[in-house]
Amino acid sequence: MTCRYPFRIKTWLRHLHRVHRLSPLTMSGLGWLQMIALTLLLVSCAGKAHQPVDAPDEPVSSMSLSYATGFSVDYYDGYKRLTVHSPWTPGAVLARYYLTTNPKQVLPSDGLHIITPIKRLVTASCTHYAFLEMLGELDKVVGLCEPKRIYNPTLRQAYQEGRIEDLGDPFRLNVERCFMLKPDLVMVSGFNQFDERINRLLDAGTSVAYNNEWMEPGLLARAEWLKYIACFFNKEALADSLFNEVSNRYLALIKLGEQAVGTKPLILSGDNFRGTWYQPGGQSFTAKLFKDAGGRYLYEADTTRGSLPLSFEQVYKDLGEADVWVGATSGNSLTELKAQDQRYTLFKPFREGRVYAYTNRITEAGGNDFWEGAVAKPDELLADFIHLLHPACLHDHTFTYLKQLPR
After folding, report:
1. Is residue 203 within a helix (H) or strand (E), and if so which, with residue range?
2. Strands, sheet with 276-280, edge to edge from the N-terminal-most edge strand
3. Is beta strand 112-115 parallel, antiparallel or unpaired with respect to 93-100?
4. For residue 117, is the peptide bond before it cis, meaning its omega torsion is within 30 degrees of 0?
5. Rounded Cα–Cα distance for residues 370 and 257 (Å)
6. pLDDT number for residue 196
7. Is the whole model's pTM more than 0.85, yes or no?
8. Partner of 150 at 20 to 30 A CA spacing, among 13, 49, 60, 200?
9. Residues 394, 382: contact at Cβ < 8 Å?
């Protein structure tokens, strides 16, 4: 960058000498002043040459997203911009990141600057594991939360061998241990708009990225966050290909469920918890899953994206004659369910032994692949439900996540 200011200083000094007829001694003093002024201005110009700039209005290109709405990616000359949109305030930006492979790249000042590909990653959510495995980047994980509850065999072994640090509760991340790991990036789920521990990491210069896939209302939208994670490893092309495989199979399975002969089985979900039976809201991803699998869900017209808190009596009145019961968590068998609440025996699916839990792939310590793999591979979860509701459509399928509770 060329600076014109030194020439203006010289012109100003010549003008000053002509007007005021300065003596040679005075000009000698002004020589020192000129040197100082020129030095300061040259430093100023050099600094301006490397100062952050505003991003151009129009990117060279943007990432194509079919389902996810919680983030966007724009590509510019020499860098890419990741924007995480606020799930709490429509139209607002939660965070913005500028990623580049060139440490000398001049970047806009309205976001966090990250050099990619990252080499050391801390992840605070188990929902990230399957995405990282699909991208072939599990070896970059140096720290995570509650590793004893991991299902992923590769990460579990890495922790047992001391290659991964335990950072404690994801809601109370151990910041001091995190600092010691010197990660290139800490990936967290934005459970809150403001978090004191996250602010401490940012204040110390640690890069933190929000991954809010859990806030998306649909399974494919959640799975598409694979593309977001891929940006930090410069593997967008691979992510796009992998996601297309998942989404194409998911859509094909929906058509298969639509072609099922017979009535749509009525689905009961969850179980009683301290006097309240939480049913999925009509706009939740679970309700949409039931519909995609060719099932009938009584509360599908509801507009809630979260859960519906209902009384035991209301659920029994509405769904006592349901055809299947999924997502039971109060026991590992019908006997254990009965021990928790004798009234469970009144439900038709209990009497007929058609009660299922998401516990087909678990570890002794409580690691459950439903919370890991099913997020990234919803096609496998949908296949489970179609096999449950319409077994003739996928007669050779074996459950990945669902497990029928024994008596």
Report:
1. helix 196-203
2. 272-273, 276-280, 307-310
3. parallel
4. yes
5. 22
6. 80
7. no
8. 200
9. no
DSSP 322-340: -SEEE---S-SSHHHHHHH
Q: Is the pLDDT of residue 20 over 70?
A: no
For residue 273, which amino acid is it?
F
Residue 390: count of CB within 10 angstroms of its CB: 22
Helices (H), 277-351: 285-292, 312-319, 334-340, 348-351
Q: Report which DSSP code applies to 234.
A: T
What residues pair up with 238 in beta bridges, in sequence order? none
Is it the case that residue 291 has pLDDT exceeding 60?
Answer: yes
> pLDDT-based confidence at 27, cuts 50/70/90?
very low
Per-chain mean pLDDT for the chain: 86
Residue 298: enclosing H or E segment and its boundaries?
none
CA dihedral 63, 235, 182, 74 (to 10 degrees): -20
Q: Please choose, from the candidates 135, 96, 134, 93, the residue with its C-alpha nearest in 3D space to the C-alpha of residue 118.
A: 135
Q: How many CB atoms lie within 10 A of CB 44?
A: 12
The set of residues, in sequence order, having a beta carbon less than 8 Å from that of 273 and lying 6+ positions away, is none
CA-atom Rg of the chain in angstroms: 29
Residue 254's closest CA among 222, 280, 290, 218? 290
DSSP reduced 3-state for 187 = strand
Output phi, psi for 282, to 5 deg. -60, -25
Q: Which letter does DSSP use for residue 164 in this model?
A: S
Return the pLDDT at 189: 86
pLDDT of residue 261: 67
pLDDT over 50 (residue 48): no
What are residue 86's phi and psi, to 5 degrees?
-65, 125
pLDDT of 210 reads 94
